[in-house]
């Protein structure tokens, strides 16, 4: 794996995020919150700025507590496991883990990347929110982030050979 996006170096805008990660294949997201929590998710599809949701049975959220890492698997069926908005950062489920929400509503092809200047509505990846349980299972009710949070770092790792 290779780090293809580091927010502190590449920029905190959703536009910066997509310039670095789109069409790179599956991706591991690593977040460090202002409160010191380390967590993220895995997208087997990666991102393409489609302004659509992605179904996946292989996606998951993860978090670190001490030296241990835990997984929160996607619920059976994997419906709406990921959202691939051109104006947001990583979005797992409708509300499970949202980083850099778009500043305006996303309406499919009507607001897709070919139809607008995405930088106008690009979300700020320093901001996020989490409410695990909609699309992902919080196996032992241990998910460390609830509600709104702020990030001090965000990294995305993809296959170095793509």
Automatic annotation (TrEMBL):
Residues 1-160 form the TLDc domain. Pfam families: TLD (PF07534). InterPro entries: TLDc_dom. This is TLDc domain-containing protein. The lineage of its organism: Eukaryota, Sar, Stramenopiles, Ochrophyta, Bacillariophyta.
């Amino acid at each position: 794996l290779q780090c293809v996006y580091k927010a502190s170096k590449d920029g905190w805008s959703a536009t910066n995020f997509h310039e670095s990660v789109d069409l790179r294949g599956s991706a591991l997201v690593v977040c460090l919150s202002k409160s010191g929590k380390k967590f993220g998710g895995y997208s087997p599809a990666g991102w393409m700025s489609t302004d659509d949701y992605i179904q996946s049975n292989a996606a998951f959220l993860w978090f670190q507590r001490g030296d241990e890492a835990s997984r929160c698997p996607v619920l059976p069926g994997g419906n709406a496991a990921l959202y691939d908005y051109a104006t947001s950062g990583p979005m797992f489920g409708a509300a499970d883990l949202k980083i850099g929400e778009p500043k305006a509503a996303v309406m499919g092809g009507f607001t897709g990347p070919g139809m607008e200047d995405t930088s106008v509505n690009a979300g700020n990846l320093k901001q996020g929110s989490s409410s695990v349980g909609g699309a992902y299972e919080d196996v032992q009710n241990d998910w460390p982030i609830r509600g709104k949070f702020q990030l001090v770092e965000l990294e995305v790792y993809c296959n170095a050979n793509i």
